[in-house]
Write the structure tokens for this entry.
Amino acid sequence: MHSAIVKEALRNGVNVVTANKKMLAENFTELYNLQIKNNVALLYEGSAGGSIPIIRNLEEYYDNELLSSERTNGTCN
């Protein structure tokens, strides 16, 4: 259900921000391609180590390399 809402928004040219890690993990390739095709932003954030934001920090640290996927053990521990 959530992915349908996000996909529709991206198709309609709406930028999306989400923290739904399960939805991203299950639909990442399709959402990423919709983002590119419709020239919109799909922004997300995750946390690890007791709610310490991690994804944005990785992107800033590795600013010359695009982050196009992530892998976790399912619990982000």
Notes: The helical segments are 2-11, 21-37, 55-61. Strands lie at 16-18, 42-44, 47-48, 52-53.
